[in-house]
Amino acid sequence: MSNMVIHNVSETKINAKASRPFGVRDKLGYLFGDFGNDFFFILVSSFLMVYYTDIFKIHAATIGLVFVIARLWDAVADVVWGRFIDTRKAGIQGKFRPWIFRMSFPLVLSGILMFVKIPGMSDGFYMAYAFVTYLVWGTLYSTVNIPYGSMASVITSDSVERTTLSTFRTMGAMLASLIINVVGPLILFVNNKADSNRFMLAAIIFGILSIACYMACYKLSTERITIPETQRNKIQLRTTLKGMLKNRPLISILIASLTFMMLSMLVGAVNVYLFKNYFGSASMLSMAGLIQTAAVFIAIPFVKSLVYKFGKKEIAAAGMLLSAVVYLTLYFLPSLTAWQFVIISAVGMFGFAFFNLVVWAFVTDVIDYQEYVTGMREDGTVYSVYSFARKVGQALAGGIGGVAIGSVGYDAARSVQSKEALDGIYTLATLVPGIVYLIIFIIIIFLYPLNKQRTSQLAEHLNEMRLSSGGK
């Protein structure tokens, strides 16, 4: 009942464009957006490090430093780009969609260039080439991802449908993950070794698929809501920052997301070495990707009903606790076969899938709370700050991943790694995730304040604020 009231009132506060009703077409369009994003994002997060260590012959710790510098730069670019978009006037095609169309082509081109190896060059050249191309790709990724992520709030103002968009977005990401993790290893590795030409081929294939997805997102999605010109002109950075400092849900979800992203990037990098070296089968990555991704899709049908009954905070926390238990258990079972490891870890992935499936709805609640604090709707800026935290997580994870792999004794020049290195890799893949998932569980339970009851109270508060403003 309250959701319907908020939807109707918000249309009086925020101009809604006359267009077709929100429906399946928008959900599919939003799905394709992250489908396109993650064709390269997951390729990079899962396989770029092994490309640099085994093909460019760059030390893992050095690569970690490159990742840290580039991701911190990208984090700043996110906020600058988000602020820039929030101060622009919406055009005929909307406020966010045109940027997806314009910037997707240079983004994909820069992604392909990352996997180009010019033969016969010096180690210094490969180092410089890796740094520049990775930095350019990350910057261009911001110009597409920020408008894409912000767009959910203008596709519909209904909070329930925004939760659906979050689920469809995650489905798009998981479809890309399924393809990359299943098909990727079969293309990238020859006789259990990374192959330069195969990496280039994969980059071109996934680049073409990525462009097709971006165009589908642009064509299928519709922006229905625009901020009135008078409100847009009132947006001030000082007011925004003060509101964010008072926004406890934003701060806590930033911490949780940063921590989760750090772990996801670390595990993505470590898993390549886990299967290639510890289990002795790089091709097993494909089956791991298939089974673990299937676990996420199994969780999808349960999300809406569980959120309705218990709340987003509650199911996300329960999922994290399950994941923590699973990975801590795996740490004490070092003699498992690759198949046994994959099946058990899939249970853990089923757990944290619930956080992934509702996280973008968390962001919508955070944007609502920012409106409650400041009285202004700043979708692009708030989303970019959230993305900033994720990029910082990526930066730290890239550094931690490189340093961690190097610190356990991994040596790309050796055909067989030492027992110490193998044990270290297994610890990075099990004990570390178990501890971090437990930390995220604690953050969600004790720091994030918007449980089911308080989220409903926030919706009622915003309803009253909009009614009062509309009556003036």
UniProtKB/TrEMBL annotation:
<keyword id="KW-1133">Transmembrane helix</keyword>
<feature type="transmembrane region" description="Helical">
    <location>
        <begin position="339"/>
        <end position="363"/>
    </location>
</feature>
<dbReference type="InterPro" id="IPR001927">
    <property type="entry name" value="Na/Gal_symport"/>
</dbReference>
<protein>
    <submittedName>
        <fullName>MFS transporter</fullName>
    </submittedName>
</protein>
<dbReference type="GO" id="GO:0008643">
    <property type="term" value="P:carbohydrate transport"/>
</dbReference>
<feature type="transmembrane region" description="Helical">
    <location>
        <begin position="100"/>
        <end position="120"/>
    </location>
</feature>
<feature type="transmembrane region" description="Helical">
    <location>
        <begin position="425"/>
        <end position="448"/>
    </location>
</feature>
<keyword id="KW-0472">Membrane</keyword>
<feature type="transmembrane region" description="Helical">
    <location>
        <begin position="250"/>
        <end position="275"/>
    </location>
</feature>
<dbReference type="Pfam" id="PF13347">
    <property type="entry name" value="MFS_2"/>
</dbReference>
<feature type="transmembrane region" description="Helical">
    <location>
        <begin position="28"/>
        <end position="52"/>
    </location>
</feature>
<feature type="transmembrane region" description="Helical">
    <location>
        <begin position="281"/>
        <end position="303"/>
    </location>
</feature>
<feature type="transmembrane region" description="Helical">
    <location>
        <begin position="315"/>
        <end position="333"/>
    </location>
</feature>
<feature type="transmembrane region" description="Helical">
    <location>
        <begin position="168"/>
        <end position="187"/>
    </location>
</feature>
<dbReference type="InterPro" id="IPR036259">
    <property type="entry name" value="MFS_trans_sf"/>
</dbReference>
<feature type="transmembrane region" description="Helical">
    <location>
        <begin position="395"/>
        <end position="413"/>
    </location>
</feature>
<feature type="transmembrane region" description="Helical">
    <location>
        <begin position="58"/>
        <end position="80"/>
    </location>
</feature>
<dbReference type="GO" id="GO:0005886">
    <property type="term" value="C:plasma membrane"/>
</dbReference>
<dbReference type="GO" id="GO:0006814">
    <property type="term" value="P:sodium ion transport"/>
</dbReference>
<feature type="transmembrane region" description="Helical">
    <location>
        <begin position="126"/>
        <end position="148"/>
    </location>
</feature>
<feature type="transmembrane region" description="Helical">
    <location>
        <begin position="199"/>
        <end position="217"/>
    </location>
</feature>
<keyword id="KW-0812">Transmembrane</keyword>
<dbReference type="GO" id="GO:0015293">
    <property type="term" value="F:symporter activity"/>
</dbReference>
<dbReference type="InterPro" id="IPR039672">
    <property type="entry name" value="MFS_2"/>
</dbReference>
